[in-house]
Structure formats: structure tokens, C-alpha cells
From TrEMBL:
Residues 217-244 form a coiled coil. Residues 149-184 are annotated as: Disordered. The keyword DNA damage applies. Keywords: Coiled coil, DNA damage, DNA repair. GO terms for molecular function: ATP hydrolysis activity. It holds the Pfam family Morc6_S5. The keyword DNA damage applies. The lineage of its organism: Eukaryota, Viridiplantae, Streptophyta, Embryophyta, Tracheophyta. It comes from Ambrosia artemisiifolia (Common ragweed). Residues 151-165 have a biased composition (Polar residues). Residues 1-135 form the Morc S5 domain. This is Morc S5 domain-containing protein. InterPro entries: MORC_ATPase, Morc_S5. GO terms for biological process: DNA repair. One of its GO terms (cellular component) is nucleus.
């Protein structure tokens, strides 16, 4: 399982064999449901690096899984598998997994960790924020209760009305007439938001299809390599049998 995700993308004519069997390539991002793509712009030594795209979502086994964290690659090689960036207390962040390629930070000599630089710490902090933001927005999809948003406090002085419990109430405002500019603006805004949501959903579907096609292509490539190896082995065995037969005919004559 570890070898199957060791590389973010396998080059052509390359495969990993373990105990005589080819290890099938696997992209963790294809396991994520309700996934999103989040752009992160790292900054190193005062110069901005290129944007990094992080794929984040729930594992397909969620919520019946305790795994969470980020698979962080460096130049397509896995350095930190499922790095936990938060303490999943009270199930918060449970099943949330992300995949990203962080070429802007330097791994250690053993390729098992990253150098604990200021840039690395900023990345971990941002990944923690991503996890919390994603969980707060999508946890209801798994049956969890979404956290309540804090209500902004308001002070209206003498124009506010006092309730029986001593809390201030907003002054009653008449409903705007139907067809007023505020209603038309609200309807246009909602339509724009709905259109944007549909476009994002369609984009996510296309991204998922691309990942699936890419995975299928790699699997077919591995099968082709395996068949070519078997064919070469059969040809060598056939040639060996021919030599044996030729040698036997010579002795008989």
C-alpha cells in the first residue's frame, strides 16, 4: 500500500515490483469524495513561489475511518504520508485527507521528513486552516453537526428596543415592496451564486474524470509492461527449447 502511493505520478516504462509482483500505482486523490482544490502561494526568502494546488476531501470510507492528514510529496516522491496537522478531538477533522506537491521546501537526507524551516511551519499552519475550514463547511455531509457561527454583536443606542430578558432587539423594519431594487439585487446575486456553484461542481466532475482516466492509463501501461515481460520470457524459453531440440537431433544422427 505504501509503495502504491510512493510516487505522485509514474514515468512511462517504469514500475515497482515487490516479491515478483507488479505494484499497481494508486493516486490517493481519486479516493476523496466531496473534494475541493485549494490554491496556496508559498513565500520563501521574500520571493513568491508558484502556486501549489492542494486536493482535499473525505476518504471514501469516511466517517468509518480514523485516518486524516496530508500526503506531502517533493518532486513527485512521497515524503510525509498522512501528516496529521490537527488533533482530531471530538471527531473534528476525521477522515479529511489532502494531497499536495511541495517542491518549495527541502526534504531531509533520509527523505522521511522535511527540514523544519519557517516556510515549512507556514505550510503546516495553512494546512491546519484548510482542514478546519473544510470540516466546518462539509462535516454535515457525513452526519456531523456543523459548528455554530458567532453572531455579530450590535449596539443601537436609544433606537433599539429592550426585550423582557434584557437583551437588545433590532428595531422592526417594514418589508420592502415586491419588485423593489433590493429584492431584484438579491435575486440576481443568488442566481450568480447558483451559477458559480454549478460551474464548480462541473469542474470537480471533470477533474475527477481526468484523474480516473489518468489512473486507467497507468494501469493499462503496467499491464502492457507485464505482458511484454511475459512475452520476452516465453521467447527466451522457446529459444532454449529449440537449442535443446537441435542438440538432441545432432547426437542422434
Amino acid at each position: 500500500a505504501y509503495l502504491s502511493i510512493l510516487y505522485l505520478k509514474l514515468p512511462e516504462a517504469f514500475c515497482i515490483a515487490l516479491r515478483g509482483k507488479v505494484v499497481l500505482y494508486h493516486n490517493t486523490a481519486t479516493d476523496l469524495k466531496h473534494h475541493e482544490f485549494i490554491r496556496y502561494k508559498p513565500q520563501r526568502d521574500g520571493s513568491k513561489e508558484g502556486p501549489v494546488i492542494t486536493t482535499i476531501g473525505f476518504l471514501k470510507e469516511a466517517p468509518h475511518v480514523k485516518v486524516h492528514g496530508f500526503n506531502i510529496y517533493h518532486k513527485r516522491r512521497l515524503i510525509l504520508p498522512y501528516l496529521p496537522v490537527i488533533c482530531a478531538s471530538n471527531n473534528k477533522g476525521r477522515g479529511v485527507v489532502g494531497v499536495l506537491e511541495a517542491d518549495f521546501i527541502q526534504p531531509t537526507h533520509s527523505k522521511q521528513d522535511f527540514e523544519k524551516t519557517n516556510v515549512y511551519q507556514k505550510l503546516v499552519t495553512r494546512l491546519k486552516e484548510m482542514t478546519v475550514e473544510y470540516w466546518d463547511t462539509h462535516c454535515e455531509l457525513l452526519g456531523y453537526t456543523a459548528p455554530r457561527k458567532a453572531q455579530p454583536s450590535s449596539a443601537f443606542g436609544s433606537c433599539s428596543k429592550q426585550g423582557s430578558n434584557g437583551k437588545r432587539k433590532l428595531p422592526e423594519q417594514p418589508d420592502p415592496p415586491e419588485g423593489s431594487p433590493s429584492i431584484r439585487t438579491s435575486e440576481a446575486y443568488n442566481a450568480q451564486i447558483q451559477k458559480k456553484t454549478l460551474l464548480l461542481q462541473e469542474n470537480s466532475k471533470l477533474k475527477q474524470q481526468c484523474l480516473n482516466h489518468e489512473m486507467s492509463e497507468k494501469e493499462l501501461s503496467l499491464k502492457l509492461m507485464k505482458l511484454q515481460a511475459e512475452l520476452k520470457e516465453a521467447e527466451q524459453e522457446y529459444a532454449s527449447l529449440l537449442r535443446v531440440c537441435s542438440s538432441g537431433d545432432g547426437v542422434h544422427s
